[in-house]
Structure formats: structure tokens, C-alpha cells
Amino acid sequence: MTSDNTNSPKDNEEKEQSSLSIDEEKKKAKKWIQGSAQTLIKWMPLGSSGTWFANALLKQEWLTAFASFPVMIVTVIWASYTESFLQRLAEVFEERGRQDVDNLMSWQQRVREAFTETIRWQLAGTDDKYLKCQANDCLQYKTEGLNTFKPKLKDVFVPLELSSQFFTDEKGQLRPPILQGFFWQRNLVQQFQSRQGLSIWHFLRLAKGDQLYRSLVIISKGGFGKTTLLRHITYIYTIKNRYKQKPYQAPKLLPVLLYLRKWQSLIANQKDLTLVTLIEKHHLQDLPGGNNLKLPPNWAKNHLDNGKMLIMLDGFDEVKEEWHKKLSQWISQQLKQYPNAYFILTSRPAGYHQYQGENKPKIPLFVKPLNEEQQARFIEKWYLSWETHNSVEPLPYEAQRQASHLIAQIKPIENEINPLSDFAKIPLLLNMIVNLDVNCTAKKLPQRRTDLFRSIVQLQLGNRPLARQVEMPLESVEDRQQVLQKLALFMMQQEQTKIEPDLLLNQLKQYLEPIDNSLSPKTFLKKIEDVSELLIRIDDHYEFAHKNFQEYLASVEIKKEKQEQLLLAKYQETWWKDTILLYVAQLTNPTPFITSLLNLNNYEANQLAYQCFQQTTRQVDPELEDQLQSLSTTVQNARYQKLEELLKNQQFKDADDETYRLMIETVGKEEGQYFDPSDFDTFPCDDLRTLDQLWVKYSNGKFGFSIQKKIYMDELGGTKDYNEKIWNEFCDRVGWKKGGNYVNYSVANRRRMSGHLPRGHLPLFNSLSSVTFYNIFILHLFSRAKTCNL
């Protein structure tokens, strides 16, 4: 029996015929519509003229018929023309329609493929895989200062504090924020007034909403932990969602840590090298496991364009001087090309002065020295990590006991000089101190920086191998050190912090032959690398554990070989500055060398002479005190020569800038940094008196610190304690305020040469930020002026 839903063959046949009939009717209808349309178009011009001609014939109006006949002829011609025209037009648009449909289908196919590709790469987790590769490069703590063991970064890292108060003006010079010229964040002001440092995460948070903070430069002397800070940032970003936690709360970014010393040759010599190429073709391939990572199309470019990538360029100061310009321009180009991306550049101050790119990082930051709390925290973490690493059953109280013993040694001593307190403010030196303390039996740690370096070298080349019962090449520590000294000097002369293995072995062979020509350079290198860690291998090259060790060993070799003239010839080169200072610190009598610098009789030489003199003040034999006192007077006279010249010529604006430079140098800080009140509490009276006397003399008693102190304390009755009423009255009197508002610093600049500035208006040096915050410092400065009897 057939189901009701089943059709018979007859029914199917009828349906097929019916379907064919419908299709035929559709075709006929379509053909009729097309034909009607063509007929209408063909005969449309005939219109009323055709009717006019027919009507004239019927009425036998021959003249009218004759007049309308040409119009009808034109219409017949048009009809014949349009028939062919419309047929061809239909053919053309039929073909065009096929092409458009093909294109539409092709576009849909491409969309489907792109969507599929996106999903595939998303599922592939490219970013996460990259983060793992980058993380493998930042796991261990490397204050690049010779650890007997290598603790994990997360176990010992202590956040560095940064100071940020200065911006770059139209000339690229560091200047303070002007009250009416910049919007100064309220929370920055609060931290500034409370003397608290700012963390790098603070600026990354600000950068999320303000592109001004997306290009930073971190400036500090060697050993202050710039590289470690970048490694810490990288490490935090490689841990999933860690950057969201307190105290970070930073935007989600993909970190790229690029060591400029490693890539400088590539950047300087490969024409049109892009940041994208550097990241994808070189940096990634250099990371552990990075050569196996497959990237989606435009991976780095998309992240850069969308502001999802943090580019960290470490060590501009370690770039060869001949390549400073090329790398400056390259960095400048990347800052311009990727305005949404985040950039952090690091450099020593002297090296950053060589930056020559059109676009500079907008916000300069300075690393603050470690305070006592940070020092204690680092030491406690370090000893706890050490105890955990070396004991089967770690004893936290034993780690705390050892840490407390060292903390007591580095604490400042009231009314006494404790060099270890100064060393402990610098992360590299503090790390060295801890290493020495845990490895040495000596009760007292070294009291000079050069002695600290010497002890570390002795530890790594002698004591440590002995404790581990490792037989080292060459019989004496001195011979091993001598080989490394010669190598360090060679690398300094080449202006390189890294050396290729073949060249290294060739140099070692030359240095070893006079001592032991039977010793293989490879054997020597392996022992030095494995046991001492003074020389370490990184990828396909070798370098000293830190540039400071290269500089120290080179300075020792220069002293040994009496090559002082080499340093005098290099006095203007920033690459050699720290080597020169380390050399002077080793001299029993530095007077001849400093005098040789002064005899060069130029501004740069005078600056360096003063810095060299500072290296000697705490380490001089009492028999040399008279000689050095005489030298001190000579150095100071040369140092203040430029300021005196500016004041003599009534160039008060430039004299104001020079006053700041001299004072910030006196307290051991870098140009662009600001003062802490404590800097004025201990400011040398001789220097303050010299500055004041020059201002008073060449302004005819109108300007100077003593004049300002007299107005504030003697005439207005002010004290070291802040009094708002007296402060405002003082500001009105010296012209820092007008109508209750602070005067814009740039306006004051324009008026300086006019001679109409009020008594006591200057100095108002740039170091004190906007005059909004001047009261934080000026009271300490006035108090010091009173103590120094100005």
C-alpha cells in the first residue's frame, strides 16, 4: 500500500511539465519586458513629431507634413541605431554582472580565509608563546655584579624609586614644569612634596591615558640598576595578569627588551632597518626558544600601531660614539612612526648628552639612590635566598641574623664618615657588598670604591676557586688579573663592551705568552668563565660581568703601565669618564694628574678636574692635605670661571642656569635632577659662599643667596619652619608672585636683561622646579646660608 505522502509517477510527470511550463512563461515574460523596453527607447524620440506628421497627411496639409518629415526620418535612424546599441549594452552588462558576482564570491572567500586565519592564530596563542620566550631571558637576578650564586629576580628585586620633575624645552634641554605651561598631576605633586620616589609603574599607568608619558628615558650613573629595572618590568609582564595586580595596575602590554649594545652594529649598518624587522627577524630569533615561534602576518606592526607593545631600549651610553648619531636618528624615527606604542630608553647621563635625534623621549626620569629601607630589604631578601639555596633545611632566623649584621655595618654614623653607607645606595655596589660579606672572613669590609672592586676581583679569581677546590690556570691571582686587565684596556680602546670568541682567544694568546706560553687560551677562558664569572659568555660573544669591572681593570692596567697620557688624551670622551675617575681614585697623590687637566684650560677639562678632586677628598694621606688644599683653591677658581664671565657680562639668565649646574654637580647629582632638602642641609659652605659672592659682586648687591636670606629672615622674620603669610610676602617682594599668582618662569626669563627685576629675584635656578614648590627647598637653603655666615 502506498503512503499518502508518496507521489505516483504520473503525478511527478505532471509536476515536471508544470514546472517547465512555468519556466517557459518566465522566459517569455522576461523577453517581452526586454523587447518592450527596447521598443520604447527606440521610438521615444518619435513622440509627438510622429503624431504631427500622420495628422498632417490625413488632413492633406502638405506643407506641414513636409516640415515634419525630417524629424521622422531622424527618429527612424535613431530606432535602427538603438536596436544595435541596446543589444550590445545588454551583452556588456551581462558580462560585467558575471564579473561582479565572481568578485563578490572571491571577496567572501577572502573574508572567510582571513577570519579563519585570525581564529587560528588566536587559538595558537602567539603572544603567550612569545612571553614565555622573553621570560626565559629574565628569570635570574643579574645586577651584573658577580653573584656566587644566581638568585631569581623575583626573590631579591627591590623596586627602584624614580624622580621626574623635568621636561625638555624647545631646544631639547631639560627644564622644570612651568606652572602655567604644564598640567602637573596632583598625585605627582603630593609625592614630590612628601619626598617619595615614583615607580616606573606609576608612569605606565599615566601613559594609558596620556601619550606624553609613552616615551620615557631613565637616566642614572652606572650600577644604579637600570637594566635590572627593565628586566623586572619584562618579568612582571610575562606572568599572566600580574601587571594588573597591586602595586602595578598597568595597561596590558607586550614587552620587548632590546639591548642596544647587542644590536648597535645592525642598526647602524643595515639601511632602512625597521623596528618590526628588528623584533621579528632578530630579537625573537635570539630569545630562548624564539626561533621555533611562527608569527602571524604583521604581528609586531599591529601591536605597535595599536599601542599594545612596550619597547625597552637598554644602554644608549654603551653604543660606540661613532654610532651615536645613527642610533639617535633610528630611535627618533621609531618614536615618530609609532606614537601609540610605549618606549623606555636607558642611559648614563654623559651618554645621553650624545643623543642627536630630532625626537627625544618626552619624559626624563632619574633613578634615586637606594634608601636605608630599600637597602635593608634587599639584604634580607638576598640572605634568605642564599639560605634557601645552600641549606637542606633553610633557617630563616639565620638569614635574618646575617642580614642584620651587615645592615649594621652600612648604617650611617652620626658625625662620622662611613663610605659603605654611600656604596650601599648603589644597587651594583650593594650587591658586591653582600657577596663579599657572605664569602669573606674579614671583619671589616672595604672602605673605598676601588678597594671594593679589588676585593671582588680577588674573591672571584682567588678565594672562591680555593674554597671550591678548583685548580685555576696560572699560579698567582695577580697573573690572572693581569691578563684580564690587558683585555679590559684593549676593549676600552676598541670602545666595545663585547668581544667575539675568535678575537678574544687571539688576544688572550698574546697576553698569556709572556707569562706561560704552554697554557692554552681556551683552557684559560673556560676556567675564568666557569669559576670567576668576571668574564661571561652571552650568546655568540663575551663581555665583562658589568662595564664597571671593565673600566676598573682597564684603569688598573693604565696605572701599572704608567699610561696616564692616554687618559689625558681622552678627557673629552664620555666613554672614558668613569675609567678616568677610577684611575684617579687609585692614585696616592692625584695632584699632578688634576693639575694636568687644569693646564688644558678649557671648560670640559675644568669640570673633569673637579670630579677627579671629589674622588680624592676621603682617601688622602694627611701629609698631602696642604698640597690638596692649595689644589682645591685652584680647582674652584677654574670651576667658577664660566659663571663669573656670565655675571660680568650681565647675562643673568645663562648665569642662573650655570648656578644650578654647579650646585647640582656639587651634591653629586646629574644635570636635570632636582635637589632634596637634605642636599642643602649639608651643602659645602665654601661653594655656597663663592656662588653668593659672585652674584652679589656683579649685581651690585642686588642678587644673591645672602640677599634673599636677608629679606626672608632678617627683614620679614621668617624661620626654617614654613609660614605661608611670610612666604607669600617674600615672593611678592622679590617678584616671584604678582597679584597673588606665581609669575611664569618664561616671563621672568624675558625680563632678566631689562634691569627691572626686584632686589633678591635671582638666583631662581631651574633645579627648584616651578616656584610653586620653591618653599620646600628655599627654607633649607636660607638656613644653610645662615649657618655658613652668608
TrEMBL record:
Residue ranges crossing the lipid bilayer per the database entry: 62-81, 760-782
Keywords: Membrane, Transmembrane, Transmembrane helix
KW Heme (keyword) present: no
Gene Ontology MF, one: tetrapyrrole binding
Residue ranges annotated for the NACHT domain, each copy included: 214-349
Region: Disordered, residue numbers: 1-23
Pfam families reported for this sequence: GUN4 (PF05419), NACHT (PF05729)
Bias-annotated ranges (Basic and acidic residues): 10-23
InterPro entries, sorted: GUN4-like, GUN4-like_sf, NACHT_NTPase, P-loop_NTPase
Keyword Transmembrane: yes
Name of the protein this chain belongs to: NACHT domain-containing protein
